[in-house]
Protein backbone atom coordinates (compact mmCIF):
# COMPACT_ATOMS: atom_id res chain seq x y z
CA UNK A 1 0.00 0.00 0.00
CA UNK A 2 1.47 3.39 -0.99
CA UNK A 3 1.77 5.94 1.77
CA UNK A 4 3.23 9.47 1.79
CA UNK A 5 6.62 9.81 3.43
CA UNK A 6 7.69 12.79 5.55
CA UNK A 7 10.35 15.29 4.57
CA UNK A 8 12.72 14.22 7.32
CA UNK A 9 13.11 11.13 9.42
CA UNK A 10 12.81 12.97 12.74
CA UNK A 11 9.62 14.76 11.72
CA UNK A 12 8.13 11.53 10.46
CA UNK A 13 8.98 9.81 13.72
CA UNK A 14 7.31 12.53 15.78
CA UNK A 15 4.17 12.34 13.66
CA UNK A 16 4.08 8.56 13.95
CA UNK A 17 4.54 8.43 17.70
CA UNK A 18 2.08 11.26 18.34
CA UNK A 19 -0.59 9.57 16.24
CA UNK A 20 -0.03 6.28 18.08
CA UNK A 21 -0.29 8.07 21.42
CA UNK A 22 -3.50 9.77 20.33
CA UNK A 23 -5.01 6.43 19.31
CA UNK A 24 -4.02 4.83 22.58
CA UNK A 25 -5.53 7.70 24.53
CA UNK A 26 -8.76 7.56 22.52
CA UNK A 27 -8.96 3.80 22.92
CA UNK A 28 -9.00 4.02 26.75
CA UNK A 29 -12.01 6.17 27.67
CA UNK A 30 -13.18 6.35 31.24
CA UNK A 31 -15.41 3.62 32.67
CA UNK A 32 -18.13 6.12 33.48
CA UNK A 33 -18.44 7.22 29.82
CA UNK A 34 -18.60 3.76 28.28
CA UNK A 35 -20.34 1.54 30.84
CA UNK A 36 -23.88 2.29 29.63
CA UNK A 37 -22.91 1.99 25.97
CA UNK A 38 -21.22 -1.37 26.57
CA UNK A 39 -24.25 -2.69 28.44
CA UNK A 40 -26.60 -1.61 25.64
CA UNK A 41 -24.31 -3.11 22.99
CA UNK A 42 -24.02 -6.43 24.82
CA UNK A 43 -27.80 -6.55 25.26
CA UNK A 44 -28.33 -5.94 21.54
CA UNK A 45 -25.77 -8.61 20.60
CA UNK A 46 -27.40 -11.11 22.97
CA UNK A 47 -30.85 -10.46 21.54
CA UNK A 48 -29.56 -10.67 17.97
CA UNK A 49 -27.91 -14.05 18.64
CA UNK A 50 -31.08 -15.37 20.24
CA UNK A 51 -33.13 -14.20 17.29
CA UNK A 52 -30.81 -15.79 14.74
CA UNK A 53 -30.80 -19.02 16.75
CA UNK A 54 -34.59 -19.10 16.62
CA UNK A 55 -34.63 -18.50 12.90
CA UNK A 56 -32.08 -21.25 12.16
CA UNK A 57 -34.25 -23.93 13.72
CA UNK A 58 -35.56 -26.57 11.36
CA UNK A 59 -32.78 -25.99 8.82
CA UNK A 60 -33.96 -22.49 7.91
CA UNK A 61 -31.53 -20.74 5.56
CA UNK A 62 -33.28 -17.40 5.26
CA UNK A 63 -30.99 -14.47 6.08
CA UNK A 64 -31.95 -10.80 5.77
CA UNK A 65 -29.04 -9.03 7.51
CA UNK A 66 -25.33 -9.50 6.84
CA UNK A 67 -22.02 -7.69 7.43
CA UNK A 68 -19.45 -8.22 4.66
CA UNK A 69 -15.84 -7.08 4.18
CA UNK A 70 -15.07 -6.15 0.58
CA UNK A 71 -11.63 -5.62 -0.96
CA UNK A 72 -10.90 -4.47 -4.47
CA UNK A 73 -8.28 -6.42 -6.37
CA UNK A 74 -4.63 -5.43 -6.01
CA UNK A 75 -2.87 -3.99 -9.02
CA UNK A 76 -0.09 -5.98 -10.69
CA UNK A 77 3.55 -5.05 -10.16
CA UNK A 78 5.59 -3.30 -12.81
CA UNK A 79 8.50 -5.16 -14.38
CA UNK A 80 12.22 -4.25 -14.50
CA UNK A 81 13.63 -5.69 -17.73
CA UNK A 82 15.90 -4.73 -20.65
CA UNK A 83 15.50 -5.68 -24.25
CA UNK A 84 17.86 -8.38 -25.52
CA UNK A 85 18.17 -9.62 -29.08
CA UNK A 86 20.84 -10.49 -31.59
CA UNK A 87 23.29 -7.64 -32.22
CA UNK A 88 21.70 -5.68 -29.34
CA UNK A 89 23.32 -6.83 -26.11
CA UNK A 90 22.47 -3.56 -24.34
CA UNK A 91 18.89 -2.86 -25.36
CA UNK A 92 16.54 -0.23 -23.91
CA UNK A 93 14.34 -0.80 -20.82
CA UNK A 94 11.41 -3.03 -21.76
CA UNK A 95 9.52 -3.83 -18.55
CA UNK A 96 5.74 -3.74 -18.86
CA UNK A 97 3.34 -2.10 -16.39
CA UNK A 98 1.08 -4.12 -14.13
CA UNK A 99 -2.61 -4.67 -14.81
CA UNK A 100 -5.35 -2.96 -12.87
CA UNK A 101 -7.05 -4.86 -10.03
CA UNK A 102 -10.66 -5.90 -10.42
CA UNK A 103 -13.49 -3.71 -9.12
CA UNK A 104 -16.25 -5.21 -6.95
CA UNK A 105 -19.91 -4.61 -7.83
CA UNK A 106 -23.12 -5.61 -6.09
CA UNK A 107 -25.92 -6.47 -8.52
CA UNK A 108 -29.59 -6.83 -7.50
CA UNK A 109 -31.42 -9.76 -9.04
CA UNK A 110 -35.03 -10.97 -8.70
CA UNK A 111 -33.88 -14.61 -8.68
CA UNK A 112 -32.67 -14.51 -5.05
CA UNK A 113 -34.75 -14.24 -1.89
CA UNK A 114 -32.10 -14.49 0.86
CA UNK A 115 -28.60 -13.24 1.69
CA UNK A 116 -27.43 -16.67 2.85
CA UNK A 117 -25.45 -17.37 -0.34
CA UNK A 118 -23.28 -14.23 -0.03
CA UNK A 119 -19.79 -14.75 1.46
CA UNK A 120 -18.74 -12.56 4.37
CA UNK A 121 -15.34 -11.81 2.81
CA UNK A 122 -15.17 -10.72 -0.80
CA UNK A 123 -11.97 -9.95 -2.66
CA UNK A 124 -11.61 -8.77 -6.24
CA UNK A 125 -9.24 -10.46 -8.67
CA UNK A 126 -5.66 -9.16 -8.79
CA UNK A 127 -4.16 -7.66 -11.92
CA UNK A 128 -1.38 -9.52 -13.69
CA UNK A 129 2.25 -8.42 -13.31
CA UNK A 130 4.06 -6.77 -16.18
CA UNK A 131 6.61 -8.77 -18.18
CA UNK A 132 9.58 -8.18 -20.43
CA UNK A 133 9.48 -6.99 -24.05
CA UNK A 134 6.99 -4.27 -23.09
CA UNK A 135 4.22 -6.70 -22.14
CA UNK A 136 1.77 -5.02 -19.83
CA UNK A 137 -0.13 -7.13 -17.31
CA UNK A 138 -3.76 -8.01 -17.98
CA UNK A 139 -6.47 -6.05 -16.18
CA UNK A 140 -8.49 -8.20 -13.80
CA UNK A 141 -12.19 -8.76 -14.58
CA UNK A 142 -14.76 -7.22 -12.21
CA UNK A 143 -16.20 -9.27 -9.38
CA UNK A 144 -20.03 -9.20 -9.32
CA UNK A 145 -21.89 -10.22 -6.18
CA UNK A 146 -25.60 -10.89 -6.72
CA UNK A 147 -28.07 -9.92 -4.00
CA UNK A 148 -31.89 -10.04 -3.85
CA UNK A 149 -33.98 -7.10 -4.97
CA UNK A 150 -34.80 -4.87 -2.03
CA UNK A 151 -31.34 -5.07 -0.44
CA UNK A 152 -30.10 -1.89 1.25
CA UNK A 153 -26.34 -1.24 1.28
CA UNK A 154 -24.86 0.86 4.07
CA UNK A 155 -21.17 1.56 4.57
CA UNK A 156 -19.98 1.19 8.16
CA UNK A 157 -18.21 4.34 9.34
CA UNK A 158 -15.04 4.61 11.46
CA UNK A 159 -15.82 3.95 15.10
CA UNK A 160 -18.18 1.08 14.42
CA UNK A 161 -16.75 -2.04 16.12
CA UNK A 162 -17.95 -4.23 13.23
CA UNK A 163 -15.91 -2.27 10.68
CA UNK A 164 -12.63 -3.71 9.38
CA UNK A 165 -9.58 -1.51 8.76
CA UNK A 166 -9.28 0.15 5.36
CA UNK A 167 -6.15 -0.09 3.20
CA UNK A 168 -4.38 2.83 4.92
CA UNK A 169 -5.19 1.68 8.45
CA UNK A 170 -4.09 -1.86 7.64
CA UNK A 171 -0.69 -0.61 6.46
CA UNK A 172 -0.30 1.59 9.54
CA UNK A 173 -1.02 -1.43 11.73
CA UNK A 174 1.72 -3.39 9.95
CA UNK A 175 4.23 -0.64 10.67
CA UNK A 176 3.55 -0.40 14.39
CA UNK A 177 6.47 -1.45 16.59
CA UNK A 178 9.13 -0.89 13.91
CA UNK A 179 12.06 1.45 14.34
CA UNK A 180 12.69 4.36 11.97
CA UNK A 181 15.11 2.45 9.73
CA UNK A 182 12.97 -0.68 9.60
CA UNK A 183 9.90 1.44 8.94
CA UNK A 184 11.61 3.18 6.03
CA UNK A 185 12.78 -0.14 4.59
CA UNK A 186 9.30 -1.65 4.92
CA UNK A 187 7.67 1.30 3.14
CA UNK A 188 10.15 1.10 0.27
CA UNK A 189 9.83 -2.66 -0.04
CA UNK A 190 6.03 -2.30 -0.37
CA UNK A 191 6.39 0.29 -3.15
CA UNK A 192 9.37 -0.58 -5.32
CA UNK A 193 10.67 -3.44 -7.45
CA UNK A 194 14.47 -3.43 -8.01
CA UNK A 195 16.64 -5.11 -10.58
CA UNK A 196 18.52 -8.02 -8.97
CA UNK A 197 21.47 -6.86 -6.80
CA UNK A 198 20.77 -3.18 -7.54
CA UNK A 199 18.50 -2.28 -4.58
CA UNK A 200 21.20 -0.56 -2.52
CA UNK A 201 22.60 1.26 -5.54
CA UNK A 202 19.14 2.56 -6.55
CA UNK A 203 18.41 3.97 -3.09
CA UNK A 204 21.51 6.17 -3.15
CA UNK A 205 20.87 7.61 -6.61
CA UNK A 206 19.29 11.05 -7.04
CA UNK A 207 16.98 9.89 -9.85
CA UNK A 208 15.43 7.32 -7.50
CA UNK A 209 14.92 9.88 -4.75
CA UNK A 210 13.16 12.17 -7.24
CA UNK A 211 10.93 9.31 -8.39
CA UNK A 212 10.18 8.45 -4.76
CA UNK A 213 9.17 12.03 -3.96
CA UNK A 214 6.90 12.07 -7.03
CA UNK A 215 5.35 8.80 -5.94
CA UNK A 216 4.53 10.14 -2.48
CA UNK A 217 2.94 13.27 -3.98
CA UNK A 218 0.70 11.07 -6.08
CA UNK A 219 -0.12 8.95 -3.06
CA UNK A 220 -1.14 11.97 -1.00
CA UNK A 221 -3.51 12.98 -3.79
CA UNK A 222 -5.05 9.48 -3.85
CA UNK A 223 -5.44 9.44 -0.09
CA UNK A 224 -7.13 12.85 -0.20
CA UNK A 225 -9.54 11.64 -2.90
CA UNK A 226 -10.32 8.56 -0.79
CA UNK A 227 -11.12 10.74 2.23
CA UNK A 228 -13.41 12.91 0.12
CA UNK A 229 -15.38 9.84 -0.97
CA UNK A 230 -15.62 8.76 2.67
CA UNK A 231 -17.51 12.00 3.46
CA UNK A 232 -20.45 10.61 1.48
CA UNK A 233 -20.60 6.94 2.53
CA UNK A 234 -22.48 4.35 0.50
CA UNK A 235 -26.18 4.22 1.34
CA UNK A 236 -28.00 2.68 -1.60
CA UNK A 237 -31.39 1.02 -1.93
CA UNK A 238 -31.21 -1.71 -4.59
CA UNK A 239 -34.95 -1.96 -5.16
CA UNK A 240 -34.84 -2.14 -8.96
CA UNK A 241 -32.69 -3.32 -11.83
CA UNK A 242 -31.37 -1.07 -14.56
CA UNK A 243 -30.80 -1.64 -18.24
CA UNK A 244 -28.20 0.16 -20.34
CA UNK A 245 -29.97 1.60 -23.38
CA UNK A 246 -27.90 2.48 -26.45
CA UNK A 247 -29.13 5.62 -28.18
CA UNK A 248 -30.44 5.32 -31.73
CA UNK A 249 -28.03 8.11 -32.71
CA UNK A 250 -24.99 6.20 -31.46
CA UNK A 251 -22.31 5.42 -34.07
CA UNK A 252 -22.61 2.15 -35.93
CA UNK A 253 -20.89 -0.67 -34.09
CA UNK A 254 -21.20 0.86 -30.63
CA UNK A 255 -20.95 -1.95 -28.12
CA UNK A 256 -23.67 -2.61 -25.58
CA UNK A 257 -22.41 -2.79 -22.02
CA UNK A 258 -24.29 -4.65 -19.34
CA UNK A 259 -25.17 -2.96 -16.09
CA UNK A 260 -22.85 -4.41 -13.48
CA UNK A 261 -24.64 -3.01 -10.45
CA UNK A 262 -23.43 -0.72 -7.67
CA UNK A 263 -19.67 -0.14 -7.49
CA UNK A 264 -18.56 -0.63 -3.88
CA UNK A 265 -14.76 -1.14 -4.02
CA UNK A 266 -12.33 -0.01 -6.72
CA UNK A 267 -9.39 -2.12 -7.72
CA UNK A 268 -5.84 -0.83 -7.30
CA UNK A 269 -3.86 0.66 -10.18
CA UNK A 270 -1.08 -1.36 -11.72
CA UNK A 271 2.57 -0.56 -11.06
CA UNK A 272 4.76 1.21 -13.60
CA UNK A 273 7.45 -0.62 -15.58
CA UNK A 274 11.00 0.70 -15.72
CA UNK A 275 10.55 2.40 -19.18
CA UNK A 276 8.34 4.91 -17.37
CA UNK A 277 11.40 6.25 -15.50
CA UNK A 278 13.58 6.64 -18.60
CA UNK A 279 15.02 10.18 -18.85
CA UNK A 280 18.05 11.97 -20.41
CA UNK A 281 19.95 11.57 -17.15
CA UNK A 282 18.73 8.04 -16.39
CA UNK A 283 19.22 5.93 -19.51
CA UNK A 284 19.10 2.60 -17.66
CA UNK A 285 16.41 2.71 -14.90
CA UNK A 286 16.69 -0.38 -12.75
CA UNK A 287 13.54 0.05 -10.66
CA UNK A 288 9.76 -0.12 -11.09
CA UNK A 289 6.76 0.39 -8.82
CA UNK A 290 4.50 -2.19 -7.26
CA UNK A 291 0.75 -2.24 -7.80
CA UNK A 292 -1.55 -0.38 -5.43
CA UNK A 293 -3.81 -2.19 -3.01
CA UNK A 294 -7.54 -2.22 -3.76
CA UNK A 295 -10.01 -0.32 -1.64
CA UNK A 296 -11.25 -1.97 1.53
CA UNK A 297 -14.74 -1.34 2.80
CA UNK A 298 -17.19 -2.90 5.28
CA UNK A 299 -20.84 -2.99 4.25
CA UNK A 300 -24.07 -3.77 6.04
CA UNK A 301 -26.54 -5.62 3.81
CA UNK A 302 -30.17 -5.47 4.88
CA UNK A 303 -32.88 -7.25 2.91
CA UNK A 304 -36.34 -5.73 3.04
CA UNK A 305 -38.91 -7.99 1.44
CA UNK A 306 -40.64 -6.53 -1.61
CA UNK A 307 -44.27 -7.58 -1.09
CA UNK A 308 -47.40 -5.64 -2.03
CA UNK A 309 -49.39 -6.70 1.03
CA UNK A 310 -47.94 -7.43 4.46
CA UNK A 311 -49.89 -9.44 7.04
CA UNK A 312 -49.46 -8.08 10.58
CA UNK A 313 -50.68 -10.05 13.58
CA UNK A 314 -49.87 -11.67 16.89
CA UNK A 315 -48.49 -15.22 16.98
CA UNK A 316 -51.13 -17.85 16.14
CA UNK A 317 -53.53 -15.28 14.72
CA UNK A 318 -53.88 -17.37 11.54
CA UNK A 319 -51.67 -15.44 9.11
CA UNK A 320 -50.02 -18.55 7.67
CA UNK A 321 -53.35 -20.32 7.26
CA UNK A 322 -54.78 -17.23 5.57
CA UNK A 323 -51.90 -17.10 3.08
CA UNK A 324 -52.42 -20.78 2.28
CA UNK A 325 -56.13 -20.18 1.75
CA UNK A 326 -55.45 -17.25 -0.60
CA UNK A 327 -52.93 -19.25 -2.65
CA UNK A 328 -54.86 -22.52 -2.62
CA UNK A 329 -52.23 -24.27 -0.50
CA UNK A 330 -49.32 -23.38 -2.84
CA UNK A 331 -47.59 -21.21 -0.21
CA UNK A 332 -45.54 -23.66 1.86
CA UNK A 333 -45.96 -22.07 5.26
CA UNK A 334 -45.72 -23.95 8.55
CA UNK A 335 -49.01 -24.15 10.46
CA UNK A 336 -49.11 -25.39 14.06
CA UNK A 337 -50.73 -24.63 17.40
CA UNK A 338 -47.64 -23.10 19.06
CA UNK A 339 -46.30 -19.54 18.89
CA UNK A 340 -43.68 -18.41 16.36
CA UNK A 341 -44.36 -21.20 13.91
CA UNK A 342 -43.31 -18.79 11.15
CA UNK A 343 -39.72 -17.69 11.74
CA UNK A 344 -39.04 -16.12 8.34
CA UNK A 345 -41.17 -14.17 5.85
CA UNK A 346 -43.02 -16.25 3.24
CA UNK A 347 -44.26 -14.54 0.07
CA UNK A 348 -47.22 -15.87 -1.90
CA UNK A 349 -48.47 -14.76 -5.33
CA UNK A 350 -52.18 -14.03 -5.81
CA UNK A 351 -53.47 -14.16 -9.40
CA UNK A 352 -56.87 -12.65 -10.12
CA UNK A 353 -59.16 -13.01 -13.15
CA UNK A 354 -61.32 -10.26 -14.63
CA UNK A 355 -64.46 -11.45 -12.84
CA UNK A 356 -62.69 -11.35 -9.45
CA UNK A 357 -62.00 -15.07 -9.23
CA UNK A 358 -58.54 -15.79 -7.85
CA UNK A 359 -56.52 -18.90 -8.56
CA UNK A 360 -56.48 -20.07 -4.96
CA UNK A 361 -60.27 -20.43 -4.93
CA UNK A 362 -60.09 -22.94 -7.81
CA UNK A 363 -58.00 -25.46 -5.88
CA UNK A 364 -59.80 -28.57 -4.81
CA UNK A 365 -58.60 -28.25 -1.21
CA UNK A 366 -60.91 -25.98 0.82
CA UNK A 367 -60.07 -26.84 4.46
CA UNK A 368 -56.58 -26.02 5.72
CA UNK A 369 -55.43 -27.87 8.82
CA UNK A 370 -52.16 -27.87 10.72
CA UNK A 371 -49.13 -28.95 8.72
CA UNK A 372 -48.68 -32.20 10.67
CA UNK A 373 -52.33 -33.20 10.11
CA UNK A 374 -52.14 -32.47 6.39
CA UNK A 375 -48.91 -34.48 6.02
CA UNK A 376 -50.54 -37.45 7.73
CA UNK A 377 -53.56 -37.14 5.45
CA UNK A 378 -51.23 -37.05 2.44
CA UNK A 379 -49.47 -40.25 3.52
CA UNK A 380 -52.81 -42.04 3.88
CA UNK A 381 -53.85 -41.00 0.38
CA UNK A 382 -50.67 -42.22 -1.33
CA UNK A 383 -52.13 -45.71 -1.87
CA UNK A 384 -55.02 -44.43 -3.97
CA UNK A 385 -52.95 -41.80 -5.76
CA UNK A 386 -53.00 -43.55 -9.14
CA UNK A 387 -56.80 -43.94 -9.27
CA UNK A 388 -57.37 -40.34 -8.21
CA UNK A 389 -54.92 -39.10 -10.82
CA UNK A 390 -56.68 -40.98 -13.63
CA UNK A 391 -60.02 -39.59 -12.50
CA UNK A 392 -58.59 -36.07 -12.39
CA UNK A 393 -57.20 -36.36 -15.90
CA UNK A 394 -60.58 -37.55 -17.24
CA UNK A 395 -62.36 -34.63 -15.54
CA UNK A 396 -59.86 -32.11 -16.96
CA UNK A 397 -60.34 -33.45 -20.48
CA UNK A 398 -64.08 -32.86 -20.17
CA UNK A 399 -63.59 -29.18 -19.31
CA UNK A 400 -63.72 -26.61 -22.10
CA UNK A 401 -60.97 -24.06 -22.63
CA UNK A 402 -63.29 -21.26 -21.47
CA UNK A 403 -63.62 -22.78 -17.98
CA UNK A 404 -61.10 -21.59 -15.39
CA UNK A 405 -58.48 -24.00 -14.10
CA UNK A 406 -55.34 -23.59 -12.02
CA UNK A 407 -51.75 -23.59 -13.17
CA UNK A 408 -50.88 -22.55 -16.71
CA UNK A 409 -54.57 -22.85 -17.65
CA UNK A 410 -55.24 -19.75 -15.55
CA UNK A 411 -52.80 -17.64 -17.58
CA UNK A 412 -55.41 -16.68 -20.20
CA UNK A 413 -57.80 -15.49 -17.47
CA UNK A 414 -55.28 -13.61 -15.31
CA UNK A 415 -55.64 -9.82 -15.43
CA UNK A 416 -53.90 -8.80 -12.19
CA UNK A 417 -51.42 -10.24 -9.73
CA UNK A 418 -49.91 -9.12 -6.45
CA UNK A 419 -47.85 -10.60 -3.64
CA UNK A 420 -48.73 -11.16 0.02
CA UNK A 421 -46.10 -11.68 2.73
CA UNK A 422 -46.70 -13.83 5.79
CA UNK A 423 -44.42 -12.50 8.52
CA UNK A 424 -43.41 -13.78 11.96
CA UNK A 425 -45.82 -12.95 14.76
CA UNK A 426 -45.48 -9.53 16.38
CA UNK A 427 -45.50 -9.25 20.16
CA UNK A 428 -45.35 -6.40 22.62
CA UNK A 429 -41.98 -4.57 22.71
CA UNK A 430 -41.03 -5.93 19.28
CA UNK A 431 -39.83 -2.41 18.41
CA UNK A 432 -37.20 -2.92 21.13
CA UNK A 433 -36.06 -6.10 19.34
CA UNK A 434 -37.92 -8.44 21.70
CA UNK A 435 -39.02 -11.78 20.22
CA UNK A 436 -38.11 -11.76 16.54
CA UNK A 437 -38.18 -7.98 16.82
CA UNK A 438 -36.59 -6.08 13.99
CA UNK A 439 -36.31 -9.26 11.93
CA UNK A 440 -40.08 -9.06 11.53
CA UNK A 441 -40.52 -5.30 11.33
CA UNK A 442 -37.77 -4.89 8.74
CA UNK A 443 -39.70 -6.98 6.23
CA UNK A 444 -42.76 -4.76 6.58
CA UNK A 445 -41.22 -1.44 5.52
CA UNK A 446 -41.53 -2.07 1.76
CA UNK A 447 -45.13 -3.25 1.69
CA UNK A 448 -47.53 -1.04 -0.24
CA UNK A 449 -50.33 -1.84 2.22
CA UNK A 450 -50.61 -3.59 5.57
CA UNK A 451 -53.42 -5.84 6.74
CA UNK A 452 -54.02 -6.58 10.42
CA UNK A 453 -55.00 -10.16 11.27
CA UNK A 454 -56.61 -10.69 14.70
CA UNK A 455 -57.95 -13.83 16.33
CA UNK A 456 -61.68 -13.46 17.05
CA UNK A 457 -61.58 -16.38 19.49
CA UNK A 458 -59.35 -14.48 21.92
CA UNK A 459 -60.87 -12.48 24.80
CA UNK A 460 -59.93 -8.95 23.65
CA UNK A 461 -58.95 -8.78 19.97
CA UNK A 462 -59.12 -4.94 20.05
CA UNK A 463 -56.27 -4.90 22.59
CA UNK A 464 -54.15 -6.93 20.17
CA UNK A 465 -54.99 -4.41 17.45
CA UNK A 466 -53.84 -1.54 19.65
CA UNK A 467 -50.56 -3.29 20.46
CA UNK A 468 -49.90 -3.98 16.78
CA UNK A 469 -50.40 -0.35 15.84
CA UNK A 470 -48.25 0.93 18.72
CA UNK A 471 -45.32 -1.35 17.84
CA UNK A 472 -45.40 -0.28 14.19
CA UNK A 473 -45.34 3.37 15.20
CA UNK A 474 -42.50 2.86 17.69
CA UNK A 475 -40.39 1.14 15.06
CA UNK A 476 -41.06 3.64 12.27
CA UNK A 477 -43.36 6.65 12.76
CA UNK A 478 -46.09 6.69 10.14
CA UNK A 479 -45.74 2.99 9.35
CA UNK A 480 -49.23 2.20 10.66
CA UNK A 481 -50.71 4.60 8.09
CA UNK A 482 -50.18 1.87 5.49
CA UNK A 483 -52.86 -0.27 7.16
CA UNK A 484 -56.07 -0.66 5.16
CA UNK A 485 -57.90 -3.67 6.53
CA UNK A 486 -58.55 -5.66 9.69
CA UNK A 487 -59.28 -9.34 9.14
CA UNK A 488 -61.20 -10.92 12.04
CA UNK A 489 -59.97 -14.46 11.53
CA UNK A 490 -61.69 -17.62 12.81
CA UNK A 491 -65.08 -16.03 12.08
CA UNK A 492 -66.59 -19.50 11.66
CA UNK A 493 -67.51 -19.02 15.33
CA UNK A 494 -70.22 -16.56 14.19
CA UNK A 495 -72.52 -19.27 12.90
CA UNK A 496 -72.89 -22.95 12.28
CA UNK A 497 -73.69 -25.79 14.63
CA UNK A 498 -71.78 -24.45 17.63
CA UNK A 499 -73.06 -23.37 21.01
CA UNK A 500 -75.54 -20.49 20.64
CA UNK A 501 -74.00 -18.72 23.58
CA UNK A 502 -70.54 -18.87 22.00
CA UNK A 503 -71.99 -17.60 18.71
CA UNK A 504 -73.55 -14.57 20.38
CA UNK A 505 -70.29 -13.86 22.22
CA UNK A 506 -68.36 -13.95 18.94
CA UNK A 507 -70.85 -11.60 17.26
CA UNK A 508 -70.55 -9.19 20.18
CA UNK A 509 -66.76 -9.26 19.84
CA UNK A 510 -67.03 -8.46 16.14
CA UNK A 511 -69.36 -5.54 16.88
CA UNK A 512 -67.01 -4.12 19.52
CA UNK A 513 -64.06 -4.62 17.19
CA UNK A 514 -65.79 -2.63 14.44
CA UNK A 515 -66.60 0.17 16.88
CA UNK A 516 -63.00 0.26 18.10
CA UNK A 517 -61.66 0.47 14.55
CA UNK A 518 -64.02 3.36 13.68
CA UNK A 519 -63.04 5.34 16.76
CA UNK A 520 -59.36 4.50 17.36
CA UNK A 521 -57.88 3.26 14.05
CA UNK A 522 -58.69 6.21 11.80
CA UNK A 523 -55.86 7.01 9.37
CA UNK A 524 -55.34 10.64 8.39
CA UNK A 525 -54.48 11.18 4.73
CA UNK A 526 -54.04 14.15 2.42
CA UNK A 527 -57.64 13.68 1.21
CA UNK A 528 -59.09 13.49 4.71
CA UNK A 529 -59.61 10.51 6.98
CA UNK A 530 -59.68 6.83 6.06
CA UNK A 531 -61.40 4.15 8.12
CA UNK A 532 -60.04 0.61 7.97
CA UNK A 533 -62.24 -2.13 6.55
CA UNK A 534 -63.19 -4.86 9.03
CA UNK A 535 -63.74 -8.21 7.31
CA UNK A 536 -64.73 -11.38 9.19
CA UNK A 537 -63.17 -14.43 7.56
CA UNK A 538 -62.23 -18.01 8.25
CA UNK A 539 -58.85 -18.95 6.81
CA UNK A 540 -59.23 -22.59 7.82
CA UNK A 541 -62.51 -23.00 5.91
CA UNK A 542 -61.66 -20.47 3.14
CA UNK A 543 -64.72 -18.37 3.99
CA UNK A 544 -65.04 -14.78 2.73
CA UNK A 545 -61.62 -14.96 1.09
CA UNK A 546 -62.94 -13.67 -2.26
CA UNK A 547 -63.91 -10.35 -0.64
CA UNK A 548 -60.54 -10.15 1.06
CA UNK A 549 -58.74 -10.63 -2.27
CA UNK A 550 -60.93 -8.03 -3.99
CA UNK A 551 -60.16 -5.40 -1.35
CA UNK A 552 -56.45 -6.23 -1.39
CA UNK A 553 -56.43 -5.81 -5.16
CA UNK A 554 -57.96 -2.34 -4.80
CA UNK A 555 -55.35 -1.32 -2.22
CA UNK A 556 -52.47 -2.44 -4.42
CA UNK A 557 -53.87 -0.73 -7.50
CA UNK A 558 -54.26 2.56 -5.64
CA UNK A 559 -50.77 2.36 -4.13
CA UNK A 560 -49.15 1.55 -7.48
CA UNK A 561 -50.96 4.46 -9.11
CA UNK A 562 -49.63 6.86 -6.46
CA UNK A 563 -46.06 5.57 -6.85
CA UNK A 564 -46.13 6.03 -10.61
UniProtKB/TrEMBL annotation:
Name of the protein described by the UniProt record: GTP-binding protein Obg/CgtA
Its organism's taxonomic lineage begins at: Eukaryota, Fungi, Dikarya, Basidiomycota, Agaricomycotina
Sorted UniProt keywords: GTP-binding, Nucleotide-binding
What residue stretches are annotated with the Obg domain? 60-306
Please name the source species: Rhizopogon vinicolor AM-OR11-026
User: Is Zinc-finger one of the keywords?
Assistant: no
* Example of a GO MF term: GTPase activity
Residues in domain OBG-type G? 307-557
Q: Name one GO cellular component term.
A: mitochondrion
Q: Name one GO biological process term.
A: ribosome biogenesis
Task: Report the InterPro entries cross-referenced here.
Answer: G_OBG, GTP-bd, GTP1_OBG_dom, GTP1_OBG_dom_sf, OBG_GTPase, P-loop_NTPase
Amino acid sequence: MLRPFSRSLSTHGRLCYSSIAARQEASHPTVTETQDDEDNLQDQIRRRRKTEWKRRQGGQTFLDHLIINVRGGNGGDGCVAFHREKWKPMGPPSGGSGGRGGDVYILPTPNLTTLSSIPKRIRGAAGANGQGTWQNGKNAPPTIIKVPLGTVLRELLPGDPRRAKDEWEAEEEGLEGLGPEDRRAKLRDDRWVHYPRYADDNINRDVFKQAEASLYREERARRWARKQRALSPINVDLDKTEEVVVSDDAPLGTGRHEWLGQLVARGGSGGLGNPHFLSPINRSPKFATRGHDGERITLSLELKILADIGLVGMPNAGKSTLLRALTGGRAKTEVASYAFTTLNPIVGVIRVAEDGTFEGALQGERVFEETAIEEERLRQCELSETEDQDQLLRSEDSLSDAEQRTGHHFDIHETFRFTVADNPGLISRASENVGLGHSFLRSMERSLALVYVVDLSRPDPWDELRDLKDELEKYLPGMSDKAHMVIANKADLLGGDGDQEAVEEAREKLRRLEEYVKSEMVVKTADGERILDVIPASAKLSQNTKKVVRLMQNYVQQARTVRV
